[in-house]
Amino acid sequence: MASLLEELFHDLGRRATEIAEELRKCASSVPSEVEAYRAQMESRASRASALTATILGDPDLNAPLFAQNFYRDFRDIARLVQALEHLPLLVLRRFDPRDLVMTRLLARICSETGYPFTPPICSSLSSQYFWTMPDMDLIFVPSLEPDRLLGLPDIYHELGHVLLFREERRFKIPILAEIERHFDRLRRDAVHANWPPESLDELEGYRYQWRASWWLEFGADLVATYLAGPSFGWCNIRTSTCLGGELHVGNESHPADDARATAIAMMLDKINATQESADIRQRWSELVQLSGETRPHRFELAYPEELLSALCDCVFDCCNQLGLRQWAVADATEKTIGAELDRAWTEFRQRPESFVGYEQQVLKRLV
Amino acid sequence: MSEMSSLSHEYVSSSEFSRSLNAAVLLVKKHFTRGQPRTEDAELRGALERLRGTLSALIQRLDESAEGQADASIPEDVFERIVEDHRGSVPHFEQDLRHVLEVLERGEAIQRSELEFLDALCGAADASASATFRKLWRR
To answer: How many domains does one find in chain A?
Structure first.
């Protein structure tokens, strides 16, 4: 009788092989732009299948001393296999004209901005607003986003996530150094001021959030602002109002919207979009007033402006090092997607009542 | 923009860390249980280097007196889980870390208890990757 580990690996190998086969079948239906991606995912599924077979052939598989290590290998491959089935396979089997439109727009954005990697694939199957699976080069958008312009700057934020993943060390090391420098200083000051232990714990909690996930969200926002300019700032106001939540309250994965708006304005200033930055800040203040919300106690402790500014400098430098094309006010006259989005936001703010007609014309031209 | 993007990034970081650590420990275990010489195999040298690097980074992160912890090699959720697993006994855990690191650096034969210690680190990394993955699928 087979051992439990053998059963698990046999089942896993079969699943990986089936996924590879299904991905192979998609070759006849996906558009040519997506074929290289399909082949890459098929190859990943095939490698998972081959790795499973190799482990099944390992004479040590059933030795008790190694069992836990092989079980961890199993779990690792099983997670990959599940992700391949739930994400690329799902996307490729249902790849439709709207997905192709978004994938083409994204490819143009990548080309216009000097994005240094293969452009990701885009799918409009999302039920979670815009999101990314960075190691699978997949960006998900809500189903009607391919028909709209105002939310499109958010795709630059998702591209930022892929960039932060692919160039993680370049971005993360200087950013972590800044986070540590600031929180070390805050802690020294707090100890010197005899803060109670629970307040020191609160401070350390913020340090952890910054290190774990907030740097990613701020980082993706700052990359998006660097690339797309003011349209990302306007879009951020729209997104902050549409997705719900309180403007000054962050959570485990996302910093507070108000702090994000501050960071975006800092990057706009840095790329010399100072007038637009002031306009967006003014609009944000209107939103805060409209909401009736106020900054909670110790908001500045969670989001020190000095740290936001240092983070902005780090992202700016990394983007420059990568040769990414910084948005410039002069770009607004060009025919790039970034310029179209900038004009779209200007048009919307001036004539919101007739914007739909304008939007349809621009989309027709773009796709 | 949704939490899925940062979760998926965190998952991939934890998962790559876990995979690489587990592979290094498995290789070291196989060699040492067979009593093979440790310096002849390039793959083994790589695995030992990987383990030394991880242990050193952990010791550095645990040193509360050190400021400016810019180490990016240990994913935050993995580090938090390891600290949580040893809450109340961090000094003892640090001592064990230093001991295993010394064994690896001096090229001494690795004992079963030291392999178990390394296995526990792999377990924490795998559990962390697994927990983040489950959050991604809302299960």
So the answer is: 3
Residues A230 and A340 occupy one common structural domain: yes
CB contact under 8 A, B5 and A216: yes
Statement to judge: residues A208 and A334 lie in one domain: yes
Count chain A–chain B contacts defined by CB atoms under 8 A.
121
Q: Both A29 and A108 in a single domain?
A: no
pTM of this prediction?
A: 0.93
Under DSSP, is residue A121 helix (H, G, I), strand (E, B) or coil? strand
- Do A257 and A117 lie in a common domain? no
Distance from CA of B122 to the nearest CA of A (A): 8
- Measured distance CA(A272)–CA(A270) in Å, rounded: 5
Both A103 and A140 in one domain: the answer is: yes
**Confidence band of B37 (pLDDT split at 50, 70, 90):** low
The beta-carbon neighbor of A154 closest among B1, B15, B80 is B1
Test B9 with A184 for CB contact under 8 angstroms.
no
Using CA atoms, how far apart are residues A204 and A212, in angstroms rounded to an integer?
12
β-bridge mates for residue A191, sequence order: none
Q: Domain containing A13: what range?
A: 4-95
ipTM rounded to 2 decimals: 0.92
Residues A275 and A162 in one domain: yes
pLDDT tens readout for residues A201-210: 999 999 999 9
The 8-class DSSP code of residue A211 comes to: I
In which band, very low, low, confident or very high, does the pLDDT at A129 lie, cut at 50, 70 and 90?
Answer: confident
Question: Strand A131-133's sheet: what is its strand order?
Answer: A121-126, A138-142, A131-133
